[in-house]
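Suppose a classmate hands you a notebook page containing two proteins, each written out with its sequence and a corresponding row of structure tokens. How would you begin to make sense of it? This section walks through that situation. The first entry is reproduced here exactly as it would appear on such a page.
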Amino acid sequence: MAIKATIHKAQVQIADMDRNVYGEHSLTIARQPSETDERMMIRILAFALNVPADDLNGRLELTKGLADADEPELWQRDLTGEIKHWIDLGQPDDRRLLKAHGRSELVSVYGFAYSTAIWWANIESKLTRLNRLAVWQIPSEQSQALAKFAQRSMQLQVTVQDGGIYVSTAADSLEINPIALRRPGE
């Protein structure tokens, strides 16, 4: 018998001053048995950093993630079902990114392992023509600290200002400084 996903709930208050996006979101996360607290929390962080100000071009949604290899971790689809933004985590291979780029208006990757810079150096030359690709590295010590915030029921505040990200709970806070390995249009 297969082990089922564990359900986590997160109330996420977002104040993104860099993009003028503010709001509160209730997330239900189906955490797969093979998913770590760190990966789950990076999914929540990616949601907070990419949620649109309104739903006019579709909502940003958590997908089945690891349970479905054909879907990203998050995506924003418009009302016709077209993918506006494809968001992956970790170190996807170049074929997956090429496929995602062909299906979406924007592709973002959030790496969070020590080896992210090495992974990117190995595949960057294969992806030079992908002008709608963003690749971010979350320093692993910061992503591991973020993993300590994981609970079955969470209340998180995410503040973004001048490129810095501040995540806090009632008991603790953390500053995250993502590193842009590639921005769209580069």
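The notebook's second entry, a different protein, reads as follows.
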Amino acid sequence: MPPETLPVDPDAEPPPSPRRARPSFRRTARRRQWDILAAIAVGGGIGSVARYGLAQAWPTPPGGFPWATFATNVSGSFLLGLLMVYVLDVWPPTRYARPFLGVGVLGGFTTFSTYTVELRGLLAAGHWSLTDAYALTSLIAGLGAVWTGIAAARRAARLPVRRGPSRRSRSASSAVPRPTSSKGRAR
């Protein structure tokens, strides 16, 4: 069949024109991404092997609390909080730190899929209260671990720990008068 009669994929890029000597921006940008993908892949392999080792060392009994996955996800959240402070505020910018460590190693180490499969298994076995405890404590502990990691990294790097505005600074800086009660005193 001649090439003119073949169906054309609408998502496919047109072939390069022979007049163009330089590669297009899109092709150059795509070529530059392979090194980042390689860094993520190597980091993901390291992180997933570490997670597998922890799961083998700390097996979950049938109907028991999945401590290995819980510890993996909470410690990974803590490490991600630490890492983001160092990558964004402390270390000089690098091309590979965040993709390799954050997306690769910690992305391969932490596991939302295993968490979900374990929740489904606990539900299927009728362990309703254990399922609730695992779901809620994992989310709350993960959020607390990220915050703790950020605060610890900022303290270690001697950066101010951001806590948001206090009541005193909000009231002192606001130009709007506070509402008063019917007796004329501020609430």
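A careful reader of the second entry would note: The mean pLDDT is 83.
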